[in-house]
Design goal:
Bound molecules: pyridoxal-5'-phosphate
Strand content: 15-25%
Largest sheet: 7 strands, mixed
Helix content: 25-40%
Oligomer: single chain
Distance between the termini: 25 Å
């Protein structure tokens, strides 16, 4: 039996390990100077003016939504072709989620359909950069501005990608990223909110530490004494630790390198799989430089998805399916969402298989995947 090849895996080197060990020997384990350094590294890499590190991508979404002013009675518009966290974080705030269908080529939110779905309750348009391919930010920005809504991004997949030469982190009013191990860079668990809006960043920072401020100029009773601090909002403990942040800063130094390798792998898949007529390869807009978090092929015939998936698994490939439309989950079904809501996302899901793609894959690994796909398709023909 050949080695199992997962669909994604972290790359941790000796520098990363050394960086973590140094923090373990220092005075700070939880949030301290290493978190500040990590936030600076994120700002430098993305061009975002303010960066707030938190303990997961989900926390980043929750903090970003809160900071953007989302609350009970409001509505967000987002894509159903995403991980449940994109929508869950809005439900945490007592908000309604409206799922709008996606574009057939990229699987990203369709601006045309967003335009038709805006209501006076729409507070946020939440773009999801599916598979690391940035969404249609110019069109979504125009809609948001015209409607008085706020455009934010779930960029859990797309740190290091760009759209019209503008980096992810500057494309929306605020951007949430994730540092889960399969993501572009990792802190084990972690996330961040990136924004140019100082007030939004301030609110996100408050939210990740119980809604408590220690800033003298923000307090209602600043003269009580030097021990005094005040809680102004109902926040959470969403703080990242220095141990994790040290890993993140060390990883950030290799972000461009990680993404370049993913792009190379995607090019190899594109070239090797293009002639297989039973497959559709991932779409890519010419003005976008995707981060290739995922490489999602779609079979032409939905009936072929399960046998091909099983054949690839039996050959030791950790293929996955991204994503079942969020409203397929029983939790969402019991909230009243019905199948048929977003036919393009449903069709995308029904035909999708994510092939392995990660920085440490060798060219031989790529060839192994290609051969497994070719052979499996021949056997299933
Ligand atoms: C699109 C998307 N949004 C949000 C998240 C949540 O990130 P985390 O796992 O860091 O909480 C993920 C992670 O899988 C994701 O893929």
């Amino acid at each position: 039996m050949t080695d199992f090849l997962p669909y994604g895996r972290q790359s941790v080197d000796e520098d990363d390990i050394q960086a973590v060990v140094e923090v373990l020997r220092s005075d700070f384990l939880t949030t301290g100077p290493a978190v500040a350094r990590f936030e600076q590294a994120l700002a430098a890499a993305t061009g975002a003016e303010h960066t707030v590190a938190v303990n997961s991508g989900t926390s980043a979404l929750h903090a970003m939504y809160f900071a953007a002013g989302l609350g009970p009675g409001d509505e967000i518009i987002t894509s159903p072709l995403t991980f449940a966290a994109t929508a869950n974080a809005a439900l945490y705030l007592g908000t309604t989620v409206k799922f709008v269908d996606v574009e057939t080529d990229t699987g990203n939110l369709d601006p045309q359909l967003v335009a038709e779905s805006l209501t006076e309750r729409t507070k946020l348009i939440v773009a999801v950069d599916f598979a690391g391919h940035p969404a249609e930010y110019d069109a979504l920005r125009e809609l948001a501005d015209r409607h008085g809504a706020i455009l934010v991004a779930d960029a859990a997949h797309s740190l290091g990608a760009s759209y019209k030469d503008r980096p992810v982190g500057t494309l929306a009013t605020a951007t949430a990223v994730s540092f889960h191990p399969v993501k572009p860079v990792t802190t084990a668990e972690g996330g961040a909110v990136l924004t140019d809006d100082a007030d939004l960043a301030r609110r996100a920072r408050l939210f990740q530490t119980h809604g408590i401020t220690r800033a003298q100029d923000e307090m209602l009773d600043p003269d009580e004494g030097p021990w005094w601090y005040e809680q102004h909002h109902l926040g959470f403990n969403y703080r990242l630790t220095d141990v994790q942040a040290a890993l993140g800063t060390s990883q950030m130094a290799r972000l461009a390198h990680f993404i370049e390798r993913r792009r190379e792998i995607a090019r190899q898949y594109d070239a090797a799989l293009a002639s297989l007529s039973s497959l559709e390869l991932p779409g890519r807009r010419p003005y976008v430089d995707p981060g290739w978090h995922l490489y999602v092929i779609r079979v032409q015939e939905a009936a072929l998805r399960r046998p091909l998936f099983e054949a690839l698994r039996s050959r030791g490939l950790g293929v996955q399916v991204h994503y079942l439309p969020v409203y397929y989950h029983p939790y969402y079904a019991q909230l009243g969402y019905q199948r048929g809501l977003a036919p393009i996302a449903e069709d995308f899901y029904a035909r999708a298989i994510s092939l392995p793609i990660f920085r440490a894959m060798s060219d031989d690994d790529v060839s192994r995947v290609v051969e497994a796909v070719e052979r499996s398709l021949r056997e299933l023909a």
